[in-house]
Amino acid sequence: MTDFAAEIQNFIATYTYYARWSDLEAAVRTLCNNQLSLKSAEIVRLSDENRSIHKTVLEQSETFHESPDDPFPITLVHHNQHQQVIALTRIGRKKDKTKFSDTEKTALKTLHRYLNQQVQYCKDRYIITANLEQQTQAFNAARQEVSQIGRVKDNFLSIASHELRTPMSVIRGYADFLLSGKFGPLNDQQKNFLQKILANVNHLTKLVNDMLDVHKLEAGKMEFVRESVSLRKLLEESVSEHQILLQEKQQTLTFFNPQNVEPTLETDPEKVRLVLANLISNAYKFTPRKGNIEVCLQPQPESDLWLVQVIDDGIGVSANDKNGLFEKFQQVDNSLQKKYTGTGLGLSICREIIQALGGEIWIEDNAKAKSGSIFNFTLPA
Ligand SMILES: Nc1ncnc2c1ncn2[C@@H]1O[C@H](COP(=O)(O)OP(=O)(O)OP(=O)(O)O)[C@@H](O)[C@H]1O
Ligand SMILES: [Mg+2]
What we know:
alpha+beta; 2 domains; three-stranded antiparallel beta sheet; 10 strands; extended; binds adenosine-5'-triphosphate; binds magnesium ion
């Protein structure tokens, strides 16, 4: 290796560590031993801060290499410890206009190749840094938005619990009083109007309660109070509580206990009642007049779990629509289902509760059955 080539190699190895422009300039001058001219017009100096100029220079550096009248256009890239380009220098031809020797050419080509790699590296670095910065900014903005939405949601929920539920129960109370006839007889139209008020207030109350439940479950704030519970008794009570609702559509609701079991569970009875209320009200909603609904209790085969089934002979759910049925706001989108009111929160609440109580909930794959749905859930003994 010639002295010149060795010097250049040495320079290549060390030059990235130069921290200041003057050092670089001095290094280039020493290296080139005044054989090369450093054209001041071709020296571009950049401040660390001026990122947009960096970018322009990086884009322009491409054309430096491609200059047709310069046989060895070399771009020296100088970057700081953060790999940001802070300067570019182009080395021109020999001052004395003599030609480069073959050795010098080889050495310069090596230097050229290396520096080109550096340019590319810095470009990539620049792009990555710019992208990262962009993504970080977008992420921070999104995070701020999410926490803002979270605050709005929390505010809304506290308003919902304190400010909405109270007036709703007052409306329900007065409508009930009036309907009872204790304050004077009502004609049929008045009764009809009051019933509509009641139905809508009940719907609103369920919606508010469901949203509060979802919020509590998501925030892990739902309290579970476990006690010794007779599952059979709980199911029988729940079935009898819902009889009045079903009368409206002349449906039957029956409790089945085919193996005559009497299990006692350590569970939260109020939450199990809530799950049953959701499943029975779904069965009621999605089953036509005079339909049949059953609640069935039996041991889950090959496990120490108890299986509860809510079975109806209503409109059913097609195999395709079963996917994601337990997700929030998920409702089957077909003309048959559209005429029913609801928010799509009931089943997601059921799933969260049952899982928290140590069981599973699912819709049975009863594709062969003509119609109807079977919703199953299990609870540990
Ligand atoms: N027994 C059923 N028969 C047919 N479809 C059902 C039945 N139960 C649930 N579904 C379908 O699953 C969807 C989700 O049920 P989910 O209980 O979560 O919501 P919803 O009843 O529509 O509203 P919400 O319970 O919040 O008032 C329903 O909209 C309906 O499309
Ligand atoms: Mg429902």
